[in-house]
């Protein structure tokens, strides 16, 4: 007796192509998720760095309360705005005495040196590659601002603004104007602000 023949069939070319298409769509979805995750991670890193930079300046202001007014930069962007590199370049050209390394400085000079070194931190001057102008540190388009919203109060705002990876929600209109108008759209501007309370001018410790 002859064995019964069973119907046999393989995958057709069309079925193979459909399977590959489904696999490709799945892989593309995974790639998009990975890209979004990397972007979110980078945004978080930049915010963490900006907060650390703002905290650094806040501590310097608290340590030199006799010249708190000398720290005020305002929010108008210009050559001397921390984050542009101008202050740090001037500081680098100073002698060791001018940098207060080998001689004492008064409180106002110390404040200017603090702003200059903060400028260097904002532009990533501590991390260079191949040449001093090829900086790999810092955060994208960073600007640092110190404001005194009310001249009658010893309250200061220390802000760091930078450019985000994409548009999100713009900073609140009542927040600092640090970096406003520099990053294409308001929704691409990122901002952290610390409130620093100091002593009253002429009071104890000032």
Reconstruct the topology from this structure.
Elements: H1 13-63, H2 86-92, H3 107-122, E1 128-129, E2 131-135, E3 143-147, E4 155-163, E5 189-197
Antiparallel strand pairs: 1-2, 3-4, 4-5
Helix pairs in contact: 1-3, 2-3
> What is the CA–CA distance across the termini?
112 Å
What fraction, in percent, of the residue positions are helical? 25-40%
Query: What is the SS-derived class?
Result: alpha+beta
Strand elements, count: 5
Q: Roughly what fraction of the amino acids lie in strands? A: 5-15%
> Mind describing the biggest β-sheet?
3 strands, antiparallel
Residue-averaged pLDDT, rounded?
Answer: 84
Radius of gyration: 27 Å
What oligomeric assembly is this protein in? single chain
Strand order of the largest sheet: 3-4-5
Q: Please work out how many helical segments DSSP would assign.
A: 3
* Succession of helices and strands: HHHEEEEE
Overall shape: it is: elongated
Low-confidence stretches: none
Structural write-up:
With 206 residues, this protein is α+β, with helices and mostly antiparallel strands. The chain has a domain at 65-206. Helix content is 36%, strand content 15%. The protein has 3 helices and 5 strands; from the N terminus they run H-H-H-E-E-E-E-E. It has helices at residues 13-63, 86-92, 107-122, and strands at 128-129, 131-135, 143-147, 155-163, 189-197. A 3-stranded antiparallel beta sheet has the order 3-4-5, covered by helices on one side. Strands 1-2 form a two-stranded antiparallel sheet. The chain is elongated. The N and C termini lie far apart (112 Å).
């Amino acid at each position: 007796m002859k064995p019964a023949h069973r119907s046999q069939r393989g995958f057709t070319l069309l079925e193979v192509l459909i399977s590959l298409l489904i696999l490709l769509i799945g892989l593309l979805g995974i790639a998009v998720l990975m890209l979004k995750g990397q972007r979110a991670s980078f945004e978080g890193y930049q915010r963490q760095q900006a907060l650390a930079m703002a905290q650094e300046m806040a501590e310097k202001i608290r340590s030199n309360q006799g010249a708190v007014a000398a720290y005020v930069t305002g929010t108008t962007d210009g050559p001397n705005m921390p984050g542009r590199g101008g202050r740090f370049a001037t500081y680098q050209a100073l002698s060791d005495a001018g940098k207060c390394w080998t001689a004492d400085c008064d409180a106002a000079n110390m404040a200017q040196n603090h702003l200059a070194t903060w400028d260097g931190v904002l532009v990533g001057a501590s991390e260079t590659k191949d040449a001093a102008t090829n900086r790999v540190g810092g955060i994208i388009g960073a600007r640092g601002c110190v404001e005194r919203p009310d001249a009658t109060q010893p309250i200061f705002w220390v802000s760091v603004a930078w450019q985000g990876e994409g548009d999100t929600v713009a900073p609140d209109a009542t927040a600092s104007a640090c970096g406003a108008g520099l990053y294409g759209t308001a929704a691409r501007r990122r901002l952290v602000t610390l409130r620093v309370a100091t002593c009253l001018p002429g009071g104890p410790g000032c």
